[in-house]
Amino acid sequence: MGEQKKGSMKFIVLLTVFVIGLVTVFVVLDNRGKQSAVTDTTSNQGLMSTENQPTLGDKDAPVQIVEFGDYKCPSCKAWSDQIYPQLKEDYIDTGDASLSFINVLFHGQGSALASKGGEAVYQLAPEAFWDFNKNLFEEQPENHDEQWVTEDKLVQVAKNSVENLDEEKFKESLSSDLVEEAVNTDEGLVEQYGVEQTPTVMINGQILENPFDYEKIKSVIDEELEDK
Ligand code: CA
């Protein structure tokens, strides 16, 4: 082998090693990107802290379901109508799963005020939160862009949801620091879990692709229950 040929062989080998190295780096980086996109979702990095969050069912149930919802979002209203009652009957009332609600404020002022309504009810009468939640979604008009969330509306819905509601206390609570902090906490969770659409439903840390696919919801929950 001549010196020149040896040299070019060496070059080819080095080039090959370099290309393989480069491809490996890209694959690793690419996978890392994919992993970080699902880090807080499919990984079982522990459950979300639902302390001070309205939670239906047994807080220590083996399956934790979290709904990220916005009172002004029409799909959330649909989820509340169609999926929530089934889920409650099949898994929450049985003690297999808990359901927590986290506010999402994707529709501006209305979302913020409605969230405060929910948090105020939760402060004053935690057991009435889920009735308020359902009743407020029911108030969402056909045209969800309408400015339908007002203080009067919240008072009316709260009155229908909370037994012997102290109206003045509720109004005070709406603008209290405690309620504002609770809403801020939820906004932080929305960011932390990378929530980009509503409703987003998470089961034991795994975000569902389609929160309306009840069969899929069932299979994810059943799988989690089997693992316990
Ligand atoms: Ca909250």
Give helix % range. 55-70%
State the domain count. 2
Which strand order spans the largest sheet, edge to edge or round the barrel? 1-3-2-4-5
Biggest sheet: strands, sense, closure? 5 strands, mixed
Number of helices: 9
* CATH fold naming of the largest domain: Glutaredoxin
End-to-end separation? 66 Å
User: Which class do the helix and strand fractions yield?
Assistant: alpha+beta
CATH class wording of the largest domain: Alpha Beta
Sequence stretches where pLDDT stays below 50 over 5 or more residues: 28-45
Tell me briefly what this model is:
By secondary structure, the chain is of the alpha+beta class. It has helices at residues 3-38, 74-82, 84-92, 108-124, 129-139, 151-161, 167-174, 177-192, 214-227, and strands at residues 55-56, 63-69, 97-103, 200-203, 206-207. 35% of the residues are buried.
Overview of this protein structure:
Helix 4 runs parallel beside helix 6 (151-161) and helix 4 (108-124) crosses helix 7. Helix content is 57%, strand content 10%. With 228 residues, it is an alpha+beta fold. The chain is elongated, with a radius of gyration of 24 Å. It folds into two domains: 2-36; 42-227, 3-Layer(aba) Sandwich (Glutaredoxin). The protein binds calcium ion (CA).
What's the layout of helices and strands?
Elements (H helix, E strand, L loop, with lengths): L2 H36 L16 E2 L6 E7 L4 H9 L1 H9 L4 E7 L4 H17 L4 H11 L11 H11 L5 H8 L2 H16 L7 E4 L2 E2 L6 H14 L1
Parallel strand pairs: 2-3
Antiparallel strand pairs: 1-3, 2-4, 4-5
Helix pairs in contact: 4-5, 4-6, 4-7, 4-8, 5-6
The protein binds calcium ion.
Calcium ion binds next to strand 3 and helix 8.
